[in-house]
């Protein structure tokens, strides 16, 4: 596959989309933007709902690859998740099949495996082939998305890298995030690797920086050429002083998914 140049970025108005709109052009990509919401300063951005099959098909026409970030990114009633994340992702893959787009990067989430107990002490890192253990309907939709990606590879030869993103924000803001944080610069490095690696078929990777307190195995991500440069450790002392260490016996501290297991943040609309 020749290196992609034109990339459709869905969910471009969101937090991660905004970070990647800034960082990915430096890797030489020309981004076509799509979101439900208009984007200030980007009059050419496509304003469309993933539920609109025709609009999605038109949006993918002519691009070399897709980074699929759009959807509900928190917990919500099943019916809403079904429309935005499950049907929406299906529409995107169908559009890619119809328009001959050969590579998709799917923003999966740690919440697809959120009920996995966090490693402690000398426990091994969580492997990439750990079973799906979604912690929410949201996480369930990410498990579905990974299976959809596998199906479109096996059935239709569309390649996907599913990235189980930890927490990609400017800085980690919780003790849990010290283990799962991905700096925006490492996020861009990882997306670049997922777009340019050869013969990925359907590959699942974790998405985080090279954190000292890492919970999962980045070997597969590294095998695609990802070379993370950041570590959350410089933030550790302050966050632990403010919030304390993760506690045994506290359910919200027991699993990879953290608070999503006990008291998930709810999608606002
Ligand atoms: N930010 C993270 O740390 C993180 C971690 C794990 C996974 N993810 C995944 O990465 C993606 C981006 O995350 P984010 O933090 O930027 O979320 P976000 O909520 O800030 O952005 C999501 C964007 O998708 C758009 N959207 C929602 N429903 C849509 C629809 N039906 N049609 C078109 N657009 C729609 C929203 O308008 C929003 O701009 C999400 O899929 C999320 O699940 C993010
Ligand atoms: O686990 C996390 O920290 C993150 O997981 C992602 O899936 C969610 O979209 C994001 O809102 C969370 O902050």
UniProtKB/TrEMBL annotation:
The keyword Metal-binding does not apply. Residues 7-171 form the NAD-dependent epimerase/dehydratase domain. One of its GO terms (molecular function) is uronate dehydrogenase activity. Its EC number is 1.1.1.203. The keyword Disulfide bond does not apply. It is an enzyme of class 1 (oxidoreductase). InterPro entries: Epimerase_deHydtase, NAD(P)-bd_dom_sf, SDR_fam. It holds the Pfam family Epimerase. Keywords: NAD, Oxidoreductase. Belongs to the NAD(P)-dependent epimerase/dehydratase family. This is Uronate dehydrogenase.
């Amino acid at each position: 596959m020749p290196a992609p140049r034109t990339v459709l970025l869905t969910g471009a108005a969101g937090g991660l989309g905004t970070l990647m709109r800034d960082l990915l052009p430096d890797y030489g990509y020309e981004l076509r933007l799509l979101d439900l919401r208009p984007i200030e300063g980007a009059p050419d951005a496509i304003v469309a709902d993933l539920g609109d099959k025709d609009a999605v098909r038109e949006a993918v026409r002519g691009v070399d690859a897709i980074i699929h970030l759009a959807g509900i990114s928190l917990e919500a009633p099943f019916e809403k998740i079904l429309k935005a994340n499950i049907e929406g992702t299906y529409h995107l893959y169908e559009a890619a099949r119809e328009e001959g787009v050969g590579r998709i990067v799917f923003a999966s989430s740690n919440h697809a495996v959120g009920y996995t107990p966090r490693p402690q002490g000398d426990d091994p890192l969580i492997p990439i082939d750990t079973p799906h253990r979604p912690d929410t309907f949201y996480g369930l939709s990410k498990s579905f998305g990974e299976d959809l990606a596998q199906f479109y590879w096996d059935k239709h030869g569309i390649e996907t890298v599913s990235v189980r993103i930890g927490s990609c924000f400017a800085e980690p803001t919780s003790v849990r995030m010290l283990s799962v944080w991905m700096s925006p610069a490492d996020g861009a490095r990882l997306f670049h690797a997922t777009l340019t690696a050869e013969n990925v078929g359907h590959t699942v990777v974790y998405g985080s920086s090279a954190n000292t307190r890492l919970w999962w195995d980045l070997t597969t991500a590294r095998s695609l050429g990802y070379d993370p440069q950041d570590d959350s450790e410089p933030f550790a002392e302050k966050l632990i002083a403010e919030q304390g260490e993760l506690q045994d016996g506290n359910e919200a501290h027991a699993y990879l998914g953290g608070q999503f297991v006990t008291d998930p943040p709810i999608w606002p609309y």
